[in-house]
Amino acid sequence: MRPRFSNRADHVMESYIMQLISVANRPGMISFATGLPDRRLFDTEGIRRAAEDVLGGPESRDSLQYGTTEGLPSLREKIASRCRKELAVDAQAEDVFITNGSQECFDHMGKLFLDPGDAVAVENPGYLGALQSLSVYAPRFEGVDIHESGPDISMLEAALGRQPKLYYAVPNFQNPSGMSYPPESRIAVAEALEGSGCLLIEDDAYGELGFRGRPGKSIKSLAPEDTVLTGSFSKIISPGLRVGWMVVPDWLKDRVRTSIEATCLHSGSFSQRVIDAFLERNDLDAYLRPIRSEYGRKKRLFLDMMEEELPDTLEWNNPEGGMFVWLRTPEGTDAMRLYEAAMARRLVVMPGRPFHVRGGGNTLRLNFATPDDDDIITGMRALRDAYRDIS
Fold it and tell me: What is the DSSP letter of 162?
């Protein structure tokens, strides 16, 4: 006889994305499906030098030892400085906690705030990884539709009236849609949160990947006491090092510290020090410039191929940053049929429905960052043929 799984385990959403990654890795497949950055842009030489700095320096053994729960002080200061400079957030090092990627931040917020049946407001569509992370705690998801003009504020206000404890949002180059909140939407969100008893989890995983800069101030800068700001080095330096961070208000620090300690003691000492040494060696803006430029170039190629190959019955957006294009098939159609037809032509795309609390059956998320130029061209022709197959 084996022990029974907990009720909580039954609530965990399956990872559609990880299933697709295994399919995308099969020989001969082209993938527009994943959320992976372009591995060709990883600065392997720079990371090697940073690792040598760590292991060859006077604190080399400290990098292999247990560390503090909050994280490496010098790295926390660098993150706080970046938040002040780029996000208008009045952050100090003591406000920053280092995590194992930003995904861990969502789990801590769920652990600290959610009981089964509690409401959580989420973007519709929204990042599937956050939905999966929070689903462990059996909440009731309240979807807030988002558009090119930002979230539907009346829908957000209605959701807040149902007293959610958390609102999860990606205001910059959102996953999955690539959309961003305009400045006026950020102000409206901050005003709606005031006095609501709802904590915003503001995920800035893609904020550094703007082709023309950031689309606006952080909501954290407008509602500092109502917001936990999260970020990551996964999309800009290395996802494999698993270094993320969150900036939390004073009233939450002790609880976050205890949650991290109970979960993992602290994030990896060596990874933190490698990231810190890398940032010490490199001007981050200069380092990011060619990455932003390359993603912008690939997006233009991607959209040019869409314009050339796909019929005008399909619609898509033109993101100003990030990694994703959002495609819509005609209303009333099922994009899963296009997903299946594309798979038959050895192209993997990501269906939009799993990103939705409701609706989304006629949407697909397409990643322009991961494939190379040849795969973009060949893959878009495969998508064209797949759409013809089902039309």
Answer: T
Domain enclosing residue 339, as ranges: 13-35+286-390
Span 153-185, pLDDT tens digits: 999 999 999 999 999 999 999 999 999 999 999
Contact 34, 17 (CB under 8 A): yes
Same domain, 295 and 219: no
Q: What span, in angstroms and rounded, lies between the C-alpha atoms of 133 and 230?
A: 14
Whether 6 is covered by a domain: the verdict is no
Q: How far apart are the C-alpha atoms of 356 and 275, rounded to whole Å?
A: 34
User: What would the pLDDT profile of 107-132 be if each residue is shown by its tens digit?
Assistant: 999 999 999 999 999 999 999 999 99
Q: Give me the residues paired with residue 328 across strands.
A: 315, 363
Q: Is the CB of residue 368 less than 8 Å from the CB of residue 29?
A: no
At 366, which CATH number?
3.90.1150.10
Ramachandran bin of 71, using left for φ above 0, alpha for ψ from -120 to 50, beta for the remaining angles? left
| CATH number, residue 78 | 3.40.640.10
Residues 275 and 330 in one domain: no
Say whether the peptide bond before residue 215 is cis (omega within 30 degrees of 0).
no
Could you tell me the CA-to-CA distances from 108 to 41, 103, 105, 199, 263 in Å, in that order?
Answer: 31, 9, 5, 13, 9
State pLDDT tens for residues 34-72. Answer: 999 999 999 999 999 999 999 998 989 999 999 999 999
What angle is formed at CA 113 by the lines to CA 112 and CA 118, rounded to 5 degrees?
A: 145
Contacts of 75 (CB under 8 A, 6+ apart): 98, 272, 273, 275, 276, 279
The token duo for 266 is 């602290």
What angle do helix axes 183-193 and 153-160 make, rounded to 10 degrees?
10
Residue 373: its pLDDT value, please? 98
- Count Cβ atoms within 10 A of the Cβ of residue 236 and give its class: 0-12 exposed, 13-18 middle, 19 or more buried: buried
Task: Decide if 170 is inside a domain.
Answer: yes
